[in-house]
Design goal:
Elements lengths: L4 H12 L6 H5 L1 H17 L5 H17 L8 H11 L5 H20 L2 E11 L5 E2 L14 E3 L1 H14 L3 E6 L3 H6 L1 H11 L4 E5 L5 H10 L3 E7 L3 H7 E3 L1 H4 L13 H15 L2 E6 L7 H18 L7 E4 L23 H15 L5 E5 L5 H10 L1 E5 L10 H4 L9 E4 L8 H6 L10 H10 L3 E2 L2 H4 L3
Parallel strand pairs: 1-4, 1-11, 1-13, 4-5, 5-6, 6-8, 8-9, 9-10, 10-11
Antiparallel strand pairs: 2-7, 3-12
Helix pairs in contact: 1-3, 3-5, 3-14, 4-6, 5-14, 6-15, 10-13, 15-16
């Protein structure tokens, strides 16, 4: 039976109104996104007899949708219509331009010219999960494995804080030993010496009890990228380990667990603890990106509605599938997306920003795209961004220390030598990406009229 927009919208609202358990919403999220997109395609097909007329109709329709947008964001059916046209090569350029034009005005109106920067410190490349797209996958035998100790972490932290960073992300592979035995004490120590820092983690999803403990120790936010909302695609890329099973209060993989569902539901656990949360899909992983993008937006809207009384702005991440440093284990060439991440990045960010209620989402541009694209995205939609990213444990040591001897800053490393070289620090990165000094980013931001602030100040906006 053909489902209309009204049918799908009613079904989604019924699921959003469920309190607990909430697995029904998540289990049907991707299929509901497919239904919305299918309805949008059918609606547009009625005007497809003449390509020229259809193009005029599409542009007028999208323009009307954007101009009628309310402070509560876009309707689900309108988002679906935009996505269908955005990923139709006949309309991509026109729809992209409309999205960016509208979002740029809204971004300035909502957040003025302010921008907050963050930087990750990678603590461990040991990983118990096997994600086929990732350089740190457990099956990658060419990847050097490193875990920094407290001296190594704080040497880098001091260097980055002195540079002006006010938000630090603790990132790691699925190193369960680190999470169980070191993470909480590290957070306490960071907050003791740098109480002004806002602190986030990007790790495997944790339990509510664990999030409560970390919040009490000083944690501010949890960033968890779903990668994809397509269960079959998720399981085909994430084949084993904690990410495929989920973990329990004892920081052990759940026997016969459902890592896909656990990951989708993890933001709720963090929100119940009072933490700010981030969510995102990996752009370039799916050949049907519109369904993932719509699923993420529906997911975010659900969280905003459910936790409306105390939710902080959602951090909407935009990770992209990039090459990895170990070529023998890089599958990106053999499993490649059909669309250009770089070209559509600002438009996708703009759609994210427009879709959500005003001030309820920070779009997170990152260094996996070129600086030009990153700056264009910030001007159009993003108020939270990373700069000077190095994605390997200890990678900032080569900048913060006048030495070629790094081994004493690591508690564990996989090579058989007694010393770790500067080259090994860089080859241990999770993904390839663009790198420039923080000062170069700041100069470029300021050249485009942007003003840097802390995200603590951004929360007050």
């Amino acid at each position: 039976m053909y489902l209309t927009f009204a049918n799908v919208r009613l079904k989604l609202q019924e699921l959003r109104n469920l309190s607990y358990p909430n697995s029904l919403f998540y289990e049907s999220l991707y299929s509901n996104s497919e239904l919305l997109l299918d309805s949008a395609k059918k609606s547009l097909s009625m005007h497809a007899r003449d390509e020229y007329v259809n193009a005029k109709f599409v542009i007028k329709t999208i323009d009307n949708i954007l101009n009628k947008r309310s402070p509560l964001g876009l309707k689900d059916s309108d988002i679906a219509l935009i996505l269908v046209t955005l990923f139709d090569y006949r309309f991509t350029d026109d729809v992209s331009n409309l999205l960016i034009k509208y979002s740029t005005v809204l971004r300035r109106k909502t957040f003025s010219n302010f921008l907050s920067t963050m930087v990750p410190i990678e603590v461990s490349s040991y990983c118990a999960s096997n994600c086929k797209f990732c350089g740190w996958k457990s099956s990658n035998k060419d990847m050097i494995r490193l875990r920094i100790n407290d001296d190594g972490f704080f040497e880098q932290l001091k260097y980055l804080v002195n540079m002006g960073f006010t938000h630090i992300e603790i990132a790691s592979g699925d190193d369960l030993d680190f999470i169980k035995n070191n993470l909480n004490d590290l957070i306490k120590k960071i907050k003791f010496y740098y109480p002004q820092i806002r602190l986030s983690i990007c790790l495997t999803p944790l339990s509510t009890n664990t999030y409560n403990t970390l919040l009490n120790s000083g944690l501010d936010a949890v960033l968890t990228w779903q990668e994809t909302y397509n269960k079959d695609l998720f399981n085909s890329f994430i084949t084993s380990g904690p990410k495929s099973k989920g973990i329990n209060d004892s920081i052990k993989p759940v026997v016969n667990g459902n890592g896909f569902l656990d990951r989708m539901m993890s933001q709720e656990r963090a929100l119940e603890s009072g933490l700010q949360v981030g969510l995102g899909v990996m752009l370039g992983l799916s050949d049907t990106p519109g369904t993932d993008i719509l699923s993420l937006i529906l997911h975010g809207k659900y969280l905003i509605q459910k936790f409306s009384s105390n939710i902080k702005p959602l951090i909407i991440g935009m990770p992209t599938w990039n090459h990895i440093t170990t070529e023998n284990y890089d599958i990106k060439n053999s499993e490649v997306s059909k669309f250009s991440i770089e070209n559509l990045f600002p438009a996708i960010a703009s759609l994210y920003f427009i879709s959500f209620e005003d001030k309820k989402a920070w779009i997170f541009a990152n260094c996996r795209v070129s600086m030009k694209t990153q700056v264009n995205t910030i001007q159009a939609a993003s108020v939270f961004t990373s700069t000077m990213v190095l994605l390997g444990p200890g990678a900032y040591l080569k900048k913060s220390l006048i030495t070629s001897s790094f081994s004493r800053y690591f508690s564990k490393f996989s090579n058989s030598k007694s010393e770790i070289s500067e080259n090994e620090l860089l080859l241990g990165e999770q993904f390839k990406h663009y790198f420039y000094e923080h000062s170069k980013y700041i100069d470029e931001f300021e050249r485009h009229g942007l003003s840097i602030c802390s995200d603590a100040d951004l929360l007050k906006a």
